[in-house]
Automatic annotation (TrEMBL):
Keywords: Signal
Gene3D superfamilies noted in UniProt: YVTN repeat-like/Quinoprotein amine dehydrogenase
Pfam families, per the entry: Reg_prop
Signal peptide: 1-18
Name of the protein in question: Two component regulator with propeller domain
Length: 704
C-alpha cells in the first residue's frame, strides 16, 4: 500500500526555519491504497461500513481495520445481501428522506409507501427527467436528498430540484453508490471513479493516484470525514490533512532533495517498480539545465521572501550546476543539456546511434546527425549531452536574472553570474545568434539568426525565438552592464524586426506547430524581456505581445504562468500610473497606438484566485499516472482541425484541475486529456509547486 504515514513522516522530519507569515490552512487530500486484506490480495471488496466499526467484506470474509491494516475476523463469513425486487425491477439504492422511503431502480426513482411505489419526476428550469438506473441515493448533512442516475445527478432541497449533467460540470453518470460527508459534500461511486458534489460544483477522483481500481463497489465516510472506497482491487482511503502553503513547500523541498537531486541537477526520478516510491532512482531529462534553473529560481524567490540560509545554499548550488553545463563543453559559452558520470547505468550513446539519427531525419530532415551525442569531458570523468535547445537557454537566462537580483550579494557572487551569462551570450554573438556544437554546426533547436527567421524553415519560430533572443540580451545587459548587448539588440530590432516578430510570440495554428512547452519558454523569456526593458515604445509593444500570448494560455489554470503574466502586467500598470507613456514622441506615425495599448492593457486580465486554487490542488503525490479523461461528460473536445491527441476543456471553458490530470508538471498542456508522464514509472520534482508558490509570495500575488 502507499501509506499516508510516509508523507507525514517526511513532514515531521523537515528542518525548522524562521517562522513564515501566518497563512490560512486548507485541506490536502491524500490517498492510501490497501491492496491486501490480511495475508492475501484484496481482490474485489464488496462492501465497507464505518459504524459501529470499520469493517469490509472481501473474498467472502469480513475484515476490520486495526493499527493501519485490514485484519481478518476469524470465523465470520461475509453476509450475502439478497437482491430486493419490486414491480419496477431490482432496488438498486434506498434511503429515508423526511420520514419517507425513497428507492431507486433501473426503471426510475420512487417513493415507497407500504410497498406501493410512486414515481418521482424531478424537474428544474433546465430539465425534466424520468430517471433511469437510479443506483445512488443519499441524504446529506443539510437534509437534502441526492440521487445519481444515467441522466445525471439530482438534489432536492426545500422542495426544489436542481439537476446536473455534464453541462453543469458532472464528470460521469454510471453510478453504483453514494455517501454523505460531515463537511456537506456528497460522494458518488461510479463504474469509473468517484464523483464529489460540493454544492453546485463537482470534482472527480479516478486512476491509481486515487483508487486501486476505478470500479467502485461501495464507499463510506467516517465521522472525521475520511472517505473509504471499496473497489474491485482493494480499498482506498482518502484523508483530508490540514496544510498550509509553507508546510507544502517544505514537503516538496524535502521531496526534491531526497529523490531528485543528481550532482546538483534536478529532474524527474524513475521508479523501478510501478507506483512504488521506495524503488525510486535518479534519472536524467533532455532539459536538466532548464529544470535545475527553475528549481534555483524557486529557491532564489524563497530566499528573497524568507531570508533562510538553506534557500540561498540551494540557489547557489543550482547556479553552480547550471554554470558547470557551460564549463564542461569545449566550445566556450555552449551549455550542455545533461552531465552524467561515465559509468551511468544507461548506454546513452548507443541510444543515439547514427542509425537512430538517420531514422529521425525521415520525419525531421533538420534533425542533427551528431555522434557521440554524449561526448566525454576533458578530464574523462563525465559524459555531457550536446545538441542543446532553446529550452535550455530560456531556463538559464530566466534563472540568472533572478539569481543576480535576489541572491548574489557580494561582488564575487555577482561576478560569477556575470561570467557565465556573458560567456553564453558571447557564444551566441560570435556565431551569429546560433548555438554551435563541438562539430562547428548549429544545434537542431538553437538557431536565433535573422537568416533562419527569413527562411522557409524558420519563419514559424521567429516570433518566439525573436522574443527569446531580445530577452536574453536584456538579461545580459542588466547583469553585466555592458552596452554592447544593448547595441546588439538594437541591430536586431532596427535591421531585422525582431521586436515586430515578437508581437506574435508563439504559434497557435496549425495544430502540429503548437507545442505546450512553447508556452513555458514564451512566458519565462517574457519575464526578463519586460522586467529589464526601459524604452517606453518597446514596453508598449511587449505589453501587447504579453497579452497576445496570454490569450492562448489563460484558460489553463497554471499558477506559474498566471504569476509571470500578472507580475509583468502589474508592472505595466505601475508604469502607466507613473505617466511613462504620456509622451507625444511615441509612434508618431500612428498617434493612436500608445493610448490604445494603455487603455486596452492597463490592468492584468487573469483571475488571481486561480493561483491559490492551483497551488492548493497540486497533489502531494507527483507520480505520473495514466489518467484518461476523454470519457468525461463535463469535457468539450477541441474541434480544431489537425489535432492529434485528444484535447479538451471543462464545460466552464477552463482546463481540468491539476489533481484530476495524469500530468502534474506546469510546463505541459492542461488541455491534453489523456497525457501521462511515465504511466506510473516516474515521479516528478516538486519544483512545479515551489516555483509558483515562492514567486507568488515575492510578487504579492497569493491571496490577493
Amino acid at each position: 500500500m502507499r501509506n499516508l504515514f510516509f508523507y507525514l513522516f517526511l513532514l515531521g522530519m523537515l528542518p525548522l526555519h524562521a517562522q513564515p507569515p501566518v497563512q490560512p490552512e486548507f485541506t490536502q487530500e491524500v490517498a492510501t491504497h490497501f491492496t491486501t486484506m490480511g495475508e492475501q490480495p484484496a481482490g474485489s471488496v464488496a462492501r465497507i461500513q464505518t459504524t459501529p466499526h470499520l469493517v469490509a467484506d472481501a473474498n467472502g470474509q469480513v475484515y476490520k481495520f486495526e493499527t493501519g491494516n485490514w485484519i481478518l475476523i476469524p470465523g465470520q463469513a461475509a453476509p450475502k445481501e439478497p437482491k430486493v425486487s419490486s414491480k419496477e425491477g431490482e432496488i438498486l439504492a434506498q434511503t429515508t428522506y423526511r420520514g419517507k422511503t425513497i428507492v431507486g431502480t433501473p426503471k426510475g426513482l420512487f417513493y415507497n409507501e407500504k410497498g406501493l411505489l410512486t414515481r418521482i419526476l424531478p424537474s428544474d428550469e433546465r430539465y425534466s427527467w424520468s430517471p433511469r438506473q437510479v443506483a445512488a441515493l443519499v441524504v446529506d448533512v443539510h437534509g437534502d436528498l441526492w440521487f445519481g442516475s444515467q441522466e445525471g445527478v439530482g438534489r432536492l432541497s426545500d422542495g426544489k430540484w436542481s439537476l446536473f449533467t455534464g453541462k453543469e460540470g458532472l464528470p460521469y453518470n454510471q453510478f453504483t453508490c453514494a455517501s454523505a460527508s460531515p463537511d456537506g459534500s456528497v460522494w458518488f461511486g461510479t463504474k469509473r471513479g468517484v464523483v464529489i458534489a460540493r454544492g453546485d460544483t463537482f470534482a472527480y477522483r479516478a486512476s491509481q493516484r486515487w483508487l486501486p481500481d476505478d470500479y467502485v463497489n461501495d464507499l463510506a465516510i467516517d465521522q472525521q470525514g475520511t472517505v473509504w472506497i471499496a473497489t474491485r482491487q482493494g480499498i482506498s482511503r482518502i484523508e483530508f490533512i490540514p496544510m498550509s502553503y509553507e508546510k507544502k513547500a517544505e514537503y516538496f523541498t524535502n521531496q526534491v532533495e531526497t529523490r531528485h537531486n543528481r550532482m546538483g541537477f534536478i529532474a524527474q526520478s524513475e521508479l523501478q517498480e510501478r507506483y512504488n516510491l521506495a524503488t525510486s532512482q535518479l534519472a536524467i531529462s533532455d532539459n536538466d539545465g532548464m529544470y535545475t534553473a527553475m528549481y534555483g529560481a524557486a529557491q532564489a524567490f524563497r530566499y528573497a521572501v524568507t531570508g533562510e540560509a538553506e534557500a540561498k545554499e540551494l540557489a547557489v548550488r543550482s547556479l553552480k550546476a547550471c554554470k558547470w553545463l557551460s564549463d564542461i563543453t569545449p566550445e566556450a559559452g555552449f551549455p550542455a543539456r545533461v552531465i552524467i558520470p561515465t559509468d551511468w547505468r544507461e548506454p546513452v550513446n548507443e541510444q543515439y546511434s547514427r542509425a537512430y539519427n538517420a531514422k529521425k531525419q525521415l520525419s525531421d530532415p533538420q534533425w542533427k546527425d551528431i555522434f557521440p551525442r554524449f561526448p566525454r569531458s576533458k578530464d574523462g570523468k563525465y559524459l555531457y549531452k550536446c545538441d542543446t535547445s532553446s529550452d535550455e537557454l530560456a531556463g538559464h537566462f530566466f534563472f540568472y536574472g533572478i539569481y543576480y537580483d535576489l541572491v548574489a550579494e557580494t561582488e564575487a557572487e555577482k561576478q560569477e553570474v556575470r561570467a557565465v551569462v556573458g560567456d553564453i551570450m558571447d557564444h551566441l554573438l560570435r556565431h551569429g545568434y546560433k548555438l554551435v556544437d563541438y562539430d562547428g554546426k548549429v544545434t537542431r533547436w538553437g538557431d536565433f539568426s535573422p537568416e533562419y527567421f527569413h527562411s522557409v524553415y524558420g519563419y514559424d519560430q521567429r516570433g518566439l525565438n525573436s522574443l527569446m533572443m531580445l530577452s536574453f540580451l536584456n538579461v545580459t545587459k542588466h547583469i553585466t552592464g555592458d552596452s554592447k548587448y544593448e547595441d546588439a539588440a538594437k541591430v536586431l530590432r532596427d535591421r531585422h524586426n525582431y521586436h515586430i516578430f515578437a508581437l506574435h510570440p508563439k504559434e497557435y495554428f496549425p495544430a502540429e506547430n503548437v507545442v505546450p512547452w512553447d508556452n513555458n519558454l514564451c512566458l519565462m523569456s517574457m519575464y526578463g524581456l519586460f522586467k529589464y526593458e526601459t524604452d517606453p515604445s518597446l514596453l508598449l509593444m511587449y505589453r501587447q505581445s504579453l497579452e497576445n500570448a496570454w490569450l492562448h494560455m489563460s484558460k489553463q489554470k497554471n499558477a506559474f504562468w498566471d504569476i509571470i503574466y500578472e507580475s509583468q502586467a502589474n508592472r505595466f500598470t505601475d508604469l502607466v500610473d507613473q505617466k511613462l507613456f504620456d509622451r507625444k514622441d511615441l509612434f508618431t506615425k500612428n498617434h493612436l497606438y500608445a493610448p490604445s495599448v494603455v487603455r486596452d492593457y492597463y490592468r492584468a486580465s487573469n483571475h488571481n484566485p486561480y493561483i491559490a486554487e492551483n497551488l492548493k490542488k497540486v497533489p502531494l503525490d507527483l507520480i505520473g499516472y495514466a489518467m484518461p479523461n476523454d470519457h468525461r461528460l463535463d469535457v468539450t473536445l477541441d474541434p480544431t482541425p489537425g489535432q492529434g491527441p485528444k484535447k479538451g476543456w471543462r464545460s466552464d471553458g477552463f482546463a481540468l484541475a491539476i489533481d484530476e490530470r495524469g500530468h502534474v508538471r506546469q510546463d505541459r498542456d492542461a488541455f491534453d486529456l489523456n497525457l501521462t508522464e511515465g504511466d506510473g514509472y516516474s515521479e516528478h520534482e516538486g519544483t512545479f509547486y515551489l516555483l509558483p508558490y515562492y514567486m507568488a509570495r515575492y510578487h504579492h500575488l497569493l491571496g490577493k
